[in-house]
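Forwarding these from the shared drive since the link keeps breaking.
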Amino acid sequence: MAFYTEVSEQDLKAFLAQFDVGAYQSHVGIRKGVSNTNYDLHTDDGHYVLTLFEPNRVHIEDVPFFMAYADALQKGGVSSPKIMMDKQGHFVRELCGRPACIVSYLLGKDVDKADITPDNCRKVGATLAKMHKIGADFEHLKVNRYSLEKWNGWFSRYKDTLNKAKNGLGLTIYMLLTELNNSWPKDLPRGAIHGDFFPDNVFFRNFEISGVIDFHFACTDLFIFDLAIAVNAWCFDRDIKFVNERFHALVQGYQSVRPLTPAETKVLPLMLKAAALRFLLSRIEEYANNKENAAVTPHDPRSFIKRLEFFTNEH
């Protein structure tokens, strides 16, 4: 989540008149995250989250996919925000020149990265596998705009700055991209994936997962790549040291719901490096494009340099 576009009380009241969600009480910007504008919204009917999809972060034509995916997860038994329809049966309306939607507020909170346990990871793995089983039957298709083609473009644009971040990093990434360009797996299980399954997008309540949020990276891609993203996100401690107990718990939890195929197991080491590379390059772009006094603080790419180094040395 993030906060870019200012929404006045007057504009929001007019927007809310199109929905049956109660009368306006208050709204406060949510500054956590980097993608879209989000507000904590209170009405006399309840607590909601208002999202405005930012054109510089999201392709507007992709918004229906995000909405349909969230709806499919909820209907499939994975708790996710309920998207509120307007009085004409639409999920998305325009607000301040942005496509916008209102979703229910999920109870629970994300786990602090320092407090993640193997039990958390086991439940995360099982939930992700359940999402993939739903995603396998999801009829909508959307290209992954943050896959290999995008990584090649990022590398070309920022390769001169990579060695400033870490000596030899440019060569490491060049060699990995060459490997990925030549051997990206194709004939593996695929479907709708979350694409950003990080701790801040998974809520826990009473030690159980209470909901999954933020679908702006959802797309159609390999399930094993989505699993690799989750490993990168959940299996390193606050000092960016790999925690084997978390890894084994996450994979065991996943396979308790959806067993990996032998081909997926074989390619997992490569996908772990690919997922580390994807988020390293996107964070480098965030820093390169960050403006002074911006409303959003960019993610530090150094944590993913360490992840990439770990997976490169291990595999």
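-- next protein --
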Amino acid sequence: MNDSHIGHIPGGYEEILRDSKAINFGMPSDMQTGALLSVLAASKPQARVLELGTGTGLGSAWLLEGMDDASVLISIEANREYQDVARRHLGHDARLQLVAGDALRFIEDHEGNAFDLIYADAMPGKYIGFGHSLRLLKRGGILVLDDILPQPNWPANHQAKVDSLLQTIDELSPREFMSVKLRWYTGHILITKR
């Protein structure tokens, strides 16, 4: 099995990758994570999907690829320059709502409908406000965390944050949440609400 071969690349992906390199965006989601996101999104018809950390839209492109026409993706990014790349290449898709702002404030303040799938690809929702991400999951919803294994662009103190997050996940009640840790590519954790 060759899991490095990705058979289908979403529309706009190559253009987003090119523009990401042009602005020296150094935190792109890898293609394997993208393919996983696409499959998870496809498993959730008529879904409400939340992406914390649009970046330049590479993960967004994969999520949109898997989503059906009745699904919606809300993607939040604090850096407008990064999110403008996503807006330029994906903004035509009516299923996508790009929110320029503070992801932590969004998850703290969000009431209303919960989410079927959450991709926490930023500090907020993963290392800060993790409990809010869990609270926003619908029953049967899935929270996806990536970049759990050491990465070359990690700051010196980042491993302690990862260790604390792993301990928090290990302490979740199995009656409320199930999780699996995957030593695959950048390292992934999937959590579902029971």
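The longest helix spans residues 158-170. The CA atoms of residues 55 and 112 lie 25 Å apart.

- D.
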